[in-house]
Design a protein that fits this description.
- Helix content is about 40%, strand content about 15%.
- It is α/β, with parallel strands linked by helices and about 500 residues long.
- The protein folds into four domains: about 100 residues, Glutaredoxin (3-Layer(aba) Sandwich); about 210 residues, NADH-ubiquinone oxidoreductase 51kDa subunit (Rossmann fold), CATH 3.40.50.11540; about 90 residues, Roll (Ubiquitin-like (UB roll)), CATH 3.10.20; about 80 residues, de novo design (two linked rop proteins) (Up-down Bundle).
- The strands form four sheets. A five-stranded mixed sheet has the order 2-1-3-4-5, with helices on one face. It has a five-stranded mixed sheet with strand order 13-12-16-14-15. Strands 8-7-6-9 form a four-stranded parallel sheet, with helices on both faces.
- The protein starts with a strand and ends in an 8-residue tail after the last helix.
Length: about 500
């Protein structure tokens, strides 16, 4: 009888709540008890309210225990948890936990299952099957498959990925680039980090396929400095992929070159915007570029450049492996495939949920989120990060769909949902939106640079009951100016939270 495999997550969130201490305690107890174990530091499955989540493989099935603290280890061994013994922390078969069983995991299919630092484990679980298909195809055929899948950008703008790639493919240039914007700065979001810390070869494979599709020979991952573990794991994975021939001068025997490098970002929110990111990659201050030309025509160092989000690129391998139709069959309307939703804020069961487009917001908040952590009613949900509108409970039955959300002035963005109960001061939230924009503005355009500062001042006057009616009208006009006149989405969308407060929570601003 071989060693029992025990899994303890090693991603940032699990570590922050004691996973490293749990792993040490398990190893120590096993040695003391004479138990033969193979301790694997996997990534988190995203059930963050249950972290650290320990899994044990018994008869080919993984059984879960959580949340486990270092103080629980002695009693777990007493209960013979290595053989699946009963314990107050026992959750049963991991895949049968309702929170996981109710999901549709495509992009995150391996997350929490594999050892993120093991290329062999990645391949054993279907890794590099997509690249294997891609090397058999012509560039235009790869682009066509991605286009037909209906994949849209998961970074916020939801632009069709295939159209962007096709533009780069058709653009003239001896040098082309693939860039991944991993500067994940939206409040309540952590999907990008989870991929990079839990399934890094997936992102590498997706970027490599993108390189083959458009003839790019160099890729860059623009990764925020606040993610030190992701930086470490991505660099290690790139080295492993290069050594195995999946990167370099002859990618997977294709005869084509693709190199990949991590570039550490300094942490400016504005660099989540693609042209600001390109400026930063070039060693300049992160500021918006005027468009046209688009980055697909003239991007990094003036060359045609793909700019995609982590989740967009990490979804490409399954599309190539299983076909455009397989992915397109999930979803609804023009929103195809799956959306990775991150539940955060005042929520009882926070974590990552991947579901097909079309599920309702209420299902996410109640069935997966379990309502608020305080037990009080949900009053508002900010969807899509700090530039997203506050969604009123009257809209909770709206389907997760880009166009459906746009109909009432909201957006899905990167899939972050931040929950607030009925004690929230929505006037304070409106002020925060303008204050955030004022702090993070690159300063290039007047509506954003000056408008956000004036927005804070106007909201302060409203909250102080200074000529409230006139200042509310002034705030509305200011929002319109910022939306219509800003160069990029920072200034153009910072008013969205404010406008949603004016429309759905006017009483908090003293409006009629």
């Amino acid at each position: 009888m071989g060693a029992t495999r025990v899994f303890v997550p090693s991603d940032t969130t699990a570590r922050s709540v004691g996973a490293d201490a749990v792993a040490v305690a398990i190893q120590s107890a096993a040695e003391k008890n004479g138990s033969e174990i193979d301790l694997i530091r996997n990534g988190s499955r995203g059930l963050y309210w249950l972290e650290p989540l320990v899994e044990v493989e018994v008869d080919g099935r993984r059984l879960a225990y959580g949340p486990v603290g270092a103080g629980d280890i002695a009693s777990l061994f007493d209960a013979n948890f290595l053989a699946g013994g009963d314990h107050p922390r026992a959750l049963g078969a991991t895949e049968e936990i309702p929170w996981l069983a109710g999901q549709t995991r495509l992009t995150f299919a391996r997350v929490g299952i594999v050892d993120p630092r093991s290329l062999d484990d990645y391949i054993a679980h279907g890794g590099y099957e997509g690249l294997g298909e891609a090397v058999k195809l012509q560039r235009a055929e790869i682009v066509e498959i991605v286009t037909e899948s209906g994949l849209r950008g998961r970074g916020g703008a939801a632009f069709p990925t295939g159209i962007k790639w096709n533009t780069v493919l058709g653009a003239e240039g001896e040098q082309k680039y693939v860039t991944c914007n991993a500067d994940e700065g939206d409040s309540g979001t952590f999907a990008d980090r989870m991929i990079m810390e839990s399934d890094p070869f997936l992102l590498i494979e997706g970027m490599t396929i993108a390189g083959l599709a458009v003839g790019a020979t160099q890729g860059y991952i623009y990764l925020r400095a606040e993610y030190p573990l992701a930086i470490e794991i991505m660099n290690e994975a790139i080295a492993s992929a290069h050594a195995a021939g999946y990167l370099g001068e002859d990618v997977a025997g294709s005869g084509q070159t693709f190199e990949l490098e991590v570039r550490v970002a300094a942490g400016a929110y504005i660099c989540g915007e693609e042209t600001s990111m390109l400026e930063s990659l070039e060693g300049k201050r992160g500021m918006i570029r005027y468009r046209p030309p688009l980055p697909a025509i003239k991007g990094l160092f003036g060359a045609p450049t793909i700019v995609n989000n982590v989740i967009s690129l990490a979804t490409v391998p399954i599309i190539l492996a299983k076909g455009a139709g397989f992915y397109r069959d999930f979803g609804t309307g023009r929103s195809r495939g799956t959306l990775t939703v991150q539940l955060a804020g005042n929520v009882r069961q926070g974590g990552l949920v991947e579901v097909a487009f079309g599920r309702t917001l209420r299902e996410l908040l109640e069935d997966f989120g379990g309502g608020t952590a305080t037990g009080r009613p949900i009053r508002a949900v900010q969807a899509g990060g700090p530039l997203g509108a506050y969604v009123h409970p009257s809209k909770f039955d709206a389907p997760l769909d880009y166009e459906a959300f746009a109909e009432f002035g909201a957006m899905l963005g990167h899939g972050g949902l931040v929950v607030f109960d009925d004690t929230v001061d929505m006037a304070e939230q409106a002020r925060f939106a303008m204050e955030f924009c004022a702090i993070e503005s690159c300063g290039k355009c007047t509506p954003c640079r000056i408008g956000a500062v004036r927005g804070v001042e106007v909201i302060d006057r409203i909250r102080s009951d200074v000529d409230r009616g006139a200042n509310i009208e002034l705030l509305k006009e200011l929002c319109e100016t910022m939306v219509d006149g800003s160069l990029c989405a920072l200034g153009g969308m910072a008013p969205y939270p404010v406008m949603s407060v004016l429309e759905y929570y006017p009483e908090d601003l003293g409006a009629d």
